[in-house]
Write a structure and sequence with these properties.
Blueprint: H1 5-28, H2 33-40, H3 48-61, H4 65-72, H5 74-94, H6 98-126, H7 132-160, H8 165-168, H9 170-184, H10 198-220, H11 225-248, H12 262-268, H13 271-293, H14 298-316, H15 319-347, H16 355-379, H17 389-422, H18 428-446, H19 458-461
Helix pairs in contact: 1-6, 1-7, 1-9, 3-6, 3-10, 4-5, 4-17, 5-6, 5-9, 6-17, 7-14, 7-16, 10-11, 10-17, 13-14, 13-16, 13-17, 13-18, 14-16, 15-16, 15-18, 17-18
Length: about 475
């Protein structure tokens, strides 16, 4: 049952805090890998298996999140997932060698895979439709800020304490998170008695694993090109087989009926997919451009990126009012065009650009990114019935995982092809081309929302056209 406004907001904040812990763990590790490799007596490149193991395990487990929430209760599964994630974090910090570390990361990935979709299910069940914008907005901020401050925190712990604290920091956070969930989140109703779809689980999990590992390997250069494309191709074929199975199974693991809801399909599978690709690509391109294209050191580059994310933060306070005043359709079109132009404007920056102009371009790009991200995340669930929210949340998490990897892979591919065609090392020209392409894709994708009715999601936004 939906809760009061204050309780719904508190639930959203508790869930957001757990998301922050999970996302932070994924990015904080990067700066610690060389020191960890030294302690484990392996090459730094060998440490990439810890990242890969987490990603693949999460991809395989995510499809089961909705069924677990319905069968055993979202609150119970969420608390158990946080607990397992916390214990696995402790094990990561205590690991004496690489195999033990990888085993702990696999357990961590399984728990992390459940936290995001189930946490969002809890939030959606806890608020009225008119409060979804604010609630989802609160849960979005970890994805916006953790990738920026994570490397800095990781560098601090690794330099001034030890790499172990990159994982041990999750222990007090996890214990506090479990206590808050038990205290604030109400108990679930009667669990659903539905059999587990093992075939659907295998097909969807392996499809995600193939797609994500294949494209991530191609983007990062961690697998041979032929193997990367083979894995991605196998993942695509398995995805087609999974869709065919889920459409005819008596008790499918995932209810695909959500894809027939126009607002969900537009936000997650159609225009929204390409918009998320550009949203995920920009934070990857900008830090590299500032260092490799502008010649700035990591601290200077980080200070510019912080301006970008300051725009994200400032927009959070106004998102609800803006959506109520203009509605989803106008915002997703108008703000999408602005976001695309802002990304392209970042491509016009150079080391000689006046600092105020650079800061303004980054700030506006951050503002528009935050608005678009929250609008997409909210509109997706505007017309989803209560009984389908578990499957819809799981589907949304799956799509977002894929588009996150696709965004980085596409960016890396554009940069590499551009540099290859110029027969030169990566330079500012290559980053400019990548940002122009991503900005153009963002603007064109936003125009697809012209197909939405003017009152799309009005019950959620409160806008009256």
């Amino acid at each position: 049952m939906p809760q009061s406004t204050a309780q719904g907001r508190n639930i959203a904040l508790v869930v957001a805090a757990s998301f922050f812990m999970q996302i932070l763990d994924g990015v904080i590790i990067v700066t610690a890998l060389p020191r960890m490799a030294e302690d484990f007596g392996v090459r730094p490149l060998d440490m990439s298996i810890g990242v890969t193991a987490y990603m693949l395990t999460a991809a395989i487990i995510i499809p089961a999140a909705g069924w677990l929430a319905d069968r055993f209760g979202a609150r119970l599964v969420f608390v158990i997932a946080i607990g397992i994630f916390t214990i696995a974090s402790l094990a990561c910090g205590l690991a004496p060698d690489l195999p033990t570390f990888v085993a702990a990361r696999i357990v961590q990935g399984a728990a992390g895979a459940l936290m995001f979709p189930i946490g969002r299910i809890i939030v959606l069940r806890s608020v009225e439709k008119s409060e979804i914008v604010q609630a989802i907005g609160l849960t979005v901020w970890p994805a916006l800020f953790a990738p920026v401050i994570g490397p800095a925190i990781g560098g601090f712990f690794t330099t001034y304490a030890s790499w172990h604290w990159n994982f041990w920091i999750n222990v007090p956070l996890g214990i506090a998170g479990m206590a808050l969930v038990m205290a604030i989140v109400p108990k679930d109703g009667e669990p659903a008695d539905k059999p587990f779809d093992w075939t659907g689980f295998a097909l969807t999990g392996l499809a995600l694993a193939g797609l994500l590992y294949g494209f991530d390997g191609l983007a990062q250069g961690t697998v041979p090109t032929e193997l990367g494309w083979a894995l991605a191709g196998a993942g695509l074929l398995l995805a087609i087989a999974a869709i065919a199975w889920l459409r005819r199974a008596a008790h499918p693991l995932l209810d695909l009926a959500s894809l027939k809801v126009p607002t969900f399909a537009a936000s997650e599978l159609q225009a929204g997919a390409f918009l998320r690709l550009t949203i995920n690509a920009t934070p990857f391109i900008l830090p590299l451009m500032f260092q490799l294209g502008f010649g700035l050191d990591p601290l200077e580059a980080g200070s510019l990126v912080l301006i970008y994310f300051l725009g994200n933060l400032v927009m959070k306070a106004a998102t609800t009012r803006i959506l109520k005043g203009f509605g989803f359709r106008r915002i997703l079109i108008g703000n999408g065009l602005l976001a695309g132009l802002a990304i392209m404007a970042c491509g016009l920056l150079s080391p000689d650009t006046a600092y105020p102009l650079t800061a303004a371009a980054l700030f506006i790009a951050g503002l528009s990114r935050s608005m678009q991200f929250t609008a997409l995340a909210t509109l997706a669930f505007a017309d989803i019935d209560a009984e389908r929210r578990s499957s819809a949340s799981t589907l949304s998490s799956m799509f977002q995982q894929v588009m996150m990897v696709f965004g980085i892979a596409a960016s890396a591919g554009i940069l590499n092809v551009s540099a290859l065609l110029r027969n030169a090392p990566l330079g500012i020209e290559d980053f400019r081309i990548a940002l122009f392409i991503m900005g153009g894709l963002c603007a064109v994708s936003a125009m697809q929302f012209l197909l939405l009715p003017a009152n799309a999601g009005a019950e959620v936004s409160g806008h009256r056209p």
